[in-house]
Model the fold of this input.
Amino acid sequence: LQRMLSMAVEVDRSPTCSSRKIADDIFPFILNIPLRSQRETLLNTMQSQLLRCRLLELLFQHSCDVPTTLSMSLDKILYFLSHSSVLPQFQDETATWQRWDEMLQYLSLLLMSYQSVKVAFPLAEHLRSSLSDRMHLIVQKAKPRLQDSDDISKLDIQLKMNAFISRMQEALGQPLPQQIHEKLFMLQ
Done:
């Protein structure tokens, strides 16, 4: 299935359009997956970084009270850190801290997928052309071009992380477990 999804993203003339279409079709099914381990297995085994990035983006957009219109960027990931909540669909019998842990896991996965997409498709226009048209650009090893919304400072990151930690501590009503601290450190 993962190989077929990866090929489906690539066979279209525009990987951006095909990944959006596929992600829109798959997303409702992800919301209905009952167990975290099953959701993580699906997302971790996804061969198409672009498709995984789109699915995680949809997941976080869905969890925001006020969805953003920003294009996918580091700034958008910081927006998700500040505005996302634990998805109600995923609130099974697990402890509250484990749901926050899952959210942090998906934020890290989104960041890694976005970084992989930026390396694989260094220029945004690569995502609007077919694989055969991209071959000469890939051979030239074009360097990733930062978008304005990818230019974030360490202070931006620190402020958003501090606000997120405060929000999570308030929701949990207790000190953060060590596992959460580790994930926060890794994300930062």
